[in-house]
Design a protein that fits this description.
single chain; 277 residues; alpha/beta; Rossmann fold; 7-stranded mixed β-sheet; 6 helices; binds zinc ion
Length: 277
């Protein structure tokens, strides 16, 4: 049985503000150890529960945050950028039985520690078929197209609540309780590692592949914090402006939907000016 861990950093133990997740800062150096602790706890729990292969896909920013040398020797890790399925790369080869979202967070415009959807501040909201969407929700639709269930979600308490919308059967672990976008009541790495390990072991029986879901078409809307960004995004084929600060597109599959979303975020990032946004 093979499990894929999609590992994001904003929802990791102890992480509460931008410097904690910004590669190169002293705070990031400190927090990447706690992030690694969360991921390794999930690895250990998955093996405890009967998994025999675990692949960790780095899913935060440069996708070079985890300390490989501190992971259990049985695990493998996919490090670095430019992957066709981005945060859930690795699910498409037909050999993954379950996916764990470790260190996840709530979506842009929602309450939650470091809430955002891909871009930290330029995107103020994402809607999928009219419902506000988090990265967890979008990625859950992608993995469903390969018939793979989401079995475990970790992050702040609001991320665990968000998971009920896309993976109601998944085990969840809140490593911290939301106070504001940049504040949380945090539990120690020793405590959260024990909680994550136990939940991961319990989650393994949920890793039962099913018939791939064809859930499309997916109508996606993205709202930006500045008007010119919606204009910039229209260079991506199929993307249209639907309001001053909003774009819309429709994809037949979430595979295409997430790829178009990545193209939009790449173009929009390049269109942000330092002072004016
Ligand atoms: Zn993220």
């Amino acid at each position: 049985m093979k499990i894929l861990i999609s590992a994001d950093m904003e929802g990791a133990t102890g992480v509460t503000w931008p410097a904690d997740v910004l590669p190169g800062t002293a705070q990031w150096e400190r927090c990447r150890a706690m992030f690694t602790s969360d991921v390794n706890a999930a690895v250990l729990g998955l093996y405890d529960g009967g998994a025999d292969r675990v692949l960790v896909n780095e899913a935060h920013w440069t996708m070079r945050n985890l300390l490989l040398e501190r992971l259990d020797a049985r695990a493998e890790m996919l490090t670095g950028r430019h992957k066709s399925l981005s945060m859930v790369e690795g699910v498409q080869h037909g050999d993954v039985d379950g996916v764990a979202f470790v260190g996840y967070h709530t979506g842009a415009g929602a309450e939650g520690v470091l809430a955002h959807t891909y871009l930290a501040n330029s995107i103020t909201g994402v809607w999928l078929n009219g419902l506000r969407a988090s990265e967890g929700l979008l990625n859950a639709h992608v993995v469903a197209e390969y018939g793979v269930p989401v079995i475990l979600v970790t992050g702040d308490d609001l991320t665990c609540a968000d998971a009920a919308a896309y993976a109601p059967d998944a085990r969840t672990v809140a490593v911290k309780d939301h106070v504001s976008r940049y504040a949380a009541v945090c539990r120690t790495p020793a405590r959260t590692a024990a909680d994550i390990r136990a939940a991961a072991a319990e989650a393994v029986p949920l890793a039962v592949r099913y018939e791939p879901v064809r859930g499309g078409p997916f109508a996606v809307e993205v709202e930006f914090d500045a008007e010119h960004l919606s204009m910039a995004a229209t260079v991506v084929p199929g993307v249209e402006r639907c309001a001053e600060r909003r774009i819309a597109y429709t994809s037949g599959t979430m595979y295409e939907g997430i790829r178009t979303f990545k193209a939009v975020t790449t173009v929009v990032s390049a269109a942000v000016e330092e002072q004016y946004g």
